[in-house]
Amino acid sequence: MDKQETQAPSQEVERPEYPVFKYANHTTFFPSAYDLRLAFGDADPTTNMQVNKLHTGVTLSWPQAKLMLLYLRLNIEYHESAIGEIKIPRSALAPMIQEKISKEYTTIEEVLSAINQTLQENLDKQ
Question: What tens digit of pLDDT does each residue of 68-126 get?
Fold first, then answer.
């Protein structure tokens, strides 16, 4: 057999010059034991932001998700130090958290407190 015939064909990976960027104001998380799937989309203003049209999905390994958390936190802290605190719209939170927050816009500390309160209430019911 000829030496050329025994070699596996070389595979070239073509990469676009620039990645595709899309805007998203909604993210849904689908965790599993193996990875974290993120689905990005837009909240539809014609439905009073109640319908989200998903357009892009990305699956991350758990170590990559943890690194992403680190870099998101660093970027958010840098942005807030330069621009000011990012307020979270109450309407962007899950209904069970919304009912614990009275202000239209809130801070991450208030959201975490409401989440902890909700978790404790659920544990107390068990």
Answer: 999 999 999 999 999 999 999 888 888 888 888 888 898 888 888 888 988 888 888 88
Specify the pTM.
Answer: 0.68
Q: How far apart are CA 34 and CA 69, in angstroms?
A: 17
> Residue 110 region, left (φ>0) first, then alpha (ψ -120 to 50), else beta?
alpha
The secondary structure element, H or E, covering residue 61 is strand 51-61
Which among 84, 119, 121, 75 has a CA at the least distance from the CA of 105? Answer: 84
The whole-angstrom separation of Cα 95 and Cα 15 is 41
Give residue limits of the domains in the chain.
22-84, 87-126
What are the tokens at 47? 């439905």
Rounded to an integer, what distance in angstroms lies between the CA atom of residue 111 and that of residue 126?
Answer: 23
Q: Other C-beta atoms within 10 Å of 107: how many?
A: 14
Tokens standing for residue 32? 């599993």
Tokens linked to 54: 């998903």
**How far, CA to CA in Å, does 27 sit from each of 38, 88, 118?**
7, 14, 22
